[in-house]
Design brief:
heterodimer; A: alpha/beta; Rossmann fold; three-stranded parallel β-sheet; 12 helices; B: alpha/beta; 2 domains; four-stranded antiparallel β-sheet; 56% helix; 11% strand; elongated
Amino acid sequence: MNHRMGAWRRRHVLGGFVGLAALGAPAILRAAPSGQPVKVGGTLSLTGFLAQTAVIHKIGAEIMVEDINSRNGFLGRPVEYIMLDDQSKPDVARSLYEKLITVDKVDLIMGPYATAPILAAMGVAQRYGKVMIQSSMGIPKLQTYDMAFPATPFGSEPDKTYPNVLLDCMATLPAPPKTMVIVTSKFPSAQFMAQGMRTEAEKRGVKVPLYLEYEAGNRDFGAIAARVKEANADFLWVGSLGLESNQILESLRKLDYTPKTSFHLYPAPGPLALSPDGNLVWSSTFLEPDEPFMSRPGMKKIAELYKERATKANLPYAIIDAQAAGMVAAWQILEAGVNGAKSLEDKQIAAWLKKNVVTTVYGPTKFDGLYNHGEPAQLIRQVQDKQWKVIWPKQFVAPGVKLIAT
Amino acid sequence: MAVNAARDLPKAAAAAAIVALAFLPMAKMPAFYESFIYLIFFWVSLSTSWALLSGFAGYFSLGHAAFFGVGVYTTAALTTKFGVPFLITVPIAAALAALLAAGIGAVVFRLRRLRGELFALLTLAVTFVIATIILNTPIDGGGGVFMSAVPLPDLMPTQTGTIYILGFAMCVLTIATAWWVAHARLGLGLFAIHDDEDVAEAKGVPTFRYKIAAFALSAGIAGAVGGIHAMYVGFITVAGTFELTVGLYVVLMSVLGGARHWLGPAIGATAITALLYAFISGGEAIMGRAIVGLILIAAILWLPDGVIPAIQAWLKRRRAAPVATRAEVVPVVPTTAPQISERSILQVRGVTKRFGGLQALAGVDLDVHEGEIFGLVGPNGSGKTTLINVISGFYPLTSGAITLDGAEIGRDPAHEIARRGVARTYQIPRPFANMTVLDNVALCATFGGPRRSKAEMRDEALHWIGFTGLGGKEEVLPAGLNLHERKFLELARALAARPKLLLLDEVLSGLNPAEIDNAIRLVRAIRAQGATIVFVEHLMRAVVELSDRVAVLNEGKLFALGKPREVMRDPRVVSIYLGKAYAA
């Protein structure tokens, strides 16, 4: 009995030591950040018409702040992310960045989501000399502030470079398209790319017999579909946002017309991949949860965390894509800038970023070009078996995946 | 002395607040506060400008974003494409928006059917049209306008301070304009249009002109506000500028504060902007918006007329009616025979009125002598009320001529006819529902009679309120009057215009015998004041007792004319109308 009791005691005492060690060890191993938090302020469009996409950025940001704090924080201090809701309005975004900087006295800022709030925030950042990293401005030439940095590798002139990526991919088809219909939303970043596509296509001998623009938010694509069918081009290029691609393809189906091959600029990835109309369509991307991207440092863990949280938040498409990855990359750049400059001073961070290469989920990223952009890395993906697969350029295509011609 | 000090206190507080707000940028407070207060100024100006037409006159617009957007893009285009200095673009933005509104108003306000929800939908359509034009022309073209290169004048030490002071100036100007309009003839006319536009016109309010003035003023302010806001936002897009929520927010803000009050929209705008900023933290954003929505729903349910009217009503309940407003005048019926001139004050010649295939009046000729009481009778549908409507200008003539005191009035608008000295009452009383008895009568004195000071108008109104026995009801709304009192309010309103010719449309219908006797005495007393009276009546006792002459209309034609007792005994009249002789 006593022996047994002794054994029991020994087991528990030992267990207690192990438990303490287990609790203490991560703190020692992680060198947990301590001291006054480094306050990073930013807004996201958590309500209003941009809210559906902004919630993806929110999850990306939360994952990254936890990840940074699980390591060393910023210079050994924990990071506190002050996230405010700009209600999808640029004027509110502007005032909230002023609040973050002049009232909350944040140490650093993180850019908002979408072009208009980004530009409103950029003006504030410029007046107060703050570094601003943004992940979702599709018109790089508008980023005129010297200390604003893009997290998504559009390159400085995506209206010239990306159409050529697409044209290169088209040229690999068994019967390369000779004609292209372009249909685009008048949403600034989509229209910007559509105009570039027309110019570059014509330069390379692909005729554009039909170029149509529709108002952002349009829901009735019947008339547009009729004209697309009438033009019957070899390739359909759609400058769409969100569900517009689904709606256009549905309108075309109602006219008994299936485009030979179609490309969609910024569609809602889940609905398009899962729709029968979306089978084998092309789209733009910067990464997919596949090789070689999953081999990038930390990517696998981030993708898993994203899936878990997006599922919990009831998002219709719980797979990490360019929207969430953009926010992840933005935090990776900020972390690299702070650690590289060993400072929270904006000027020093900006100077370091301009001279160095940062490894993000998008790969090695530089900021030494026009408008602080580096090399473009916009890719082409295709829906195959209801999943998005990168199909071009070749070096980003996963083993066993290839472009399926239609 | 103490009373004066109490009255001056709000004015002194307002002046102090204006001075304090003007010098706020000098306090070098954090820029956010300047920005936040600027956004309050912005919404105050925008919602107050909306209320100038939609709140005051009741022409509910859902398209205020159109005029705001014209201002935004005027400044954006002039500064970025033509290098015009920003400050110069603001008045141009205001002028273009005002011009657009005046142009739309000149077409729309002529059509009676485009009131109410049709006007709201039309303004919404204008927003879409303007947005489409801007989106599809080089003004924007779809790519947006980036204004970072546009220099902002150094009015204040900081850029935010400069935007703040411009927003502040615009806000003060807008509220001052709203105050002025609400206290001027224009405002009084707009309030009357809000309650009953046809009656307002008949009482002498130049409704068409006033609506255009209010629309242009409202749009002009929105345009100037847009011009300033373009600089605040920095990147202009069609979707962001013309979004539906701009129009909805101004409506919500105005309705919450009280759209008929000059300060109501400012209160609503301040409350809603502050509420929206109360829940900006990322963790509570969605719940916060839901709470804001619930607060607004509750406020609108509990305070349907808005915060300011609710406060005013509460204050009024606490106060007894001031003795000075109690009108006590006893109508005197002269014992001497009335003086009836041989001169015709009203001549009706060959008047016809068609409504499509229906001939309501088929060539009526009449002469009404100065000083007489002229009865107009006939079976239902004989054209009596149509004739009153034609004489008062409510219906345009199809053909014929009508002269008043020798001047042709047949084709004049109703408000011109009213100013020439024709006043009328309605068979079913149509008082201005949101105005007190005193305001109802004072409005008619203001627009129908000769130009006088405000105090004189008030005295005039009090006189006729007392004359018609409504003394003590001055501050009561028409809903608080019984039918008898409402009929007499109709009379008081008509008399306050000091008409040469008074048209009474079945003023006795629905009254009990004692009230009828009272009314007959009153009509006689009115005639004693020197007015000529034409009255439509079915009550034969009153017709016979009151009329000097009677005309009988049948099927839109003059059927008989003469002394009341003779006409009533005419077998032809009896057969078409009475069924039996009135007097043996």
